[in-house]
Amino acid sequence: MNDSRHIETQAIHAGRVGDPAHGSLATPIHQTSTFVFDDAAQGGARFAGEAEGYVYSRLGNPTVRELEQRMAVLEGTDDAIAFASGMGAISAVLLGLLRAGDHLVSTAQLYGCTHALIDEQLRGFGIDVTLVPEVDEAAIEAALTPRTRMIYVETPVNPRLDVLDLGAIARMARLRGIVTVCDNTFMTPVLQRPARHGIDLVVHSATKYLNGHGDVIAGVVCGDVTRISTLRKISLKNFGAVLSPHDAWLVLRGLKTLPLRVARHNENAARVAAFLDAHPAVRQAWWPGLPGHRARRLLGTQMSGAGAVIAFEPVGGYAGAVRFLDALALCRRAVSLGDVETLVQHPASMTHSTYTPEDRRAAGISDAMVRIAVGLEHADDIIADLDQALAPLAGGEQAAEGRRASGA
Ligand code: 4LM
């Protein structure tokens, strides 16, 4: 949808459906399952798509429509469609657009439930799947076959923040008539707009930064009118993962502060990443803004910021990770990301526990890895909490070093 205003303005005003009847400033919540027809002919015409107007909230609702229109503007696509969850959006795309005999290419590292949906359900439906071990454009291109219908990627990928060059992926797909899908949950349109790089469909877990306050499960797909209309007629209508008007309203409210929140999330994450990277009890930290991270090549071009999710391995392996998690006092032990609260979780036993241990290892997700979704508390307070939770591990490491040095 065409809107040349700045993203701060779009996040507040774009796609407004409004309230002509009363002029309320806030978007009304159209909490209704169905819509009344003036007469039978009008109802029939709406069902036939020959007249404008709502029919039934599984097929469309004015509050939900405002969210869809705002997201289309934010992502720079023609249209968008909302779903009851990020997985609702992702399954709508995969099951709505792929058929038995089609080939899908994606990466071995993905959000756990997306990986399970692709690796288990899609294969079960006769869709051929290649999950390339490396998060790498060349590996994706090498996996394409004449039957490849879709390339599905996350960048940065959950949980280790490896990145992909979206322009390169769009180019290899366009040449071959392949549809491209990018999960933009970790970046949001504030930091990355995949459609600008030629990606066809942009999916979101709106549960995360778009809503931002940890009180909604929602999903969105942004793309061209034809594919979004297919998703509405097939995936939304027949699979039925419909977003409630109230939840759409909460996401609309969250969106108004998205650019502000993302900026502060990023500032906080930069400080936390630098702290972790330098900490003696941290073996390795992954954050797209850290020196040496592969994402640095895309910062300032594809990505205007590094995001606020950080992965790291404390010393002491799995036991060290558990000890660290259990010692947290301010940061919350919880999955999810993009909320005002800092959320810390253990991918191997939580978000990526759906993987087999072998698949996890192959995807580079170790048992020691911890993931932090940096929130909006003061960075000093977040760091103080991480520091006190890491301190016993650092002590243990120093003691072990001491023992090694003394030959004990
Ligand atoms: C998590 N993630 O990582 P719903 N796409 C990405 C995600 O990270 C997620 C979804 C889709 C986490 C949830 C527990 C990149 C979810 C799925 O949860 O269905 O809205 O989104 O902590």
Q: Can I get a quick summary?
A:
With 408 residues, this protein is of the alpha/beta class. It is built from 14 helices and 12 strands.
Structural class, by secondary structure, is: alpha/beta
What's the β-strand tally? 12
For the report, how would you describe the main beta sheet? 7 strands, mixed
Radius of gyration: 22 Å
The tally of domains stands at: 2
User: What fraction strand?
Assistant: 5-15%
Number of helices: 14
Strand ordering within the main sheet: 1-7-6-5-4-2-3
Distance between the termini: 68 Å
Notable features of this structure?
binds ligand 4LM, 408 residues, disordered C terminus, Aspartate Aminotransferase, domain 2, globular, Aspartate Aminotransferase, domain 1, seven-stranded mixed sheet, five-stranded mixed sheet, 14 helices, alpha/beta
Blueprint (SSEs and pairs):
Blueprint: H1 7-13, H2 40-47, H3 62-75, E1 79-83, H4 86-97, E2 103-107, H5 112-124, E3 128-132, H6 137-143, E4 148-154, H7 166-176, E5 179-183, H8 188-191, E6 201-205, E7 219-223, H9 225-239, H10 245-255, H11 258-278, E8 282-286, E9 309-314, H12 317-327, E10 332-333, E11 343-345, H13 357-362, E12 370-373, H14 379-406
Parallel strand pairs: 2-3, 2-4, 4-5, 5-6, 10-11
Antiparallel strand pairs: 1-7, 6-7, 8-9, 9-12, 11-12
Helix pairs in contact: 1-3, 3-10, 4-5, 4-9, 12-14
The protein binds ligand 4LM.
The site of ligand 4LM has 17 residues, from helix 4.
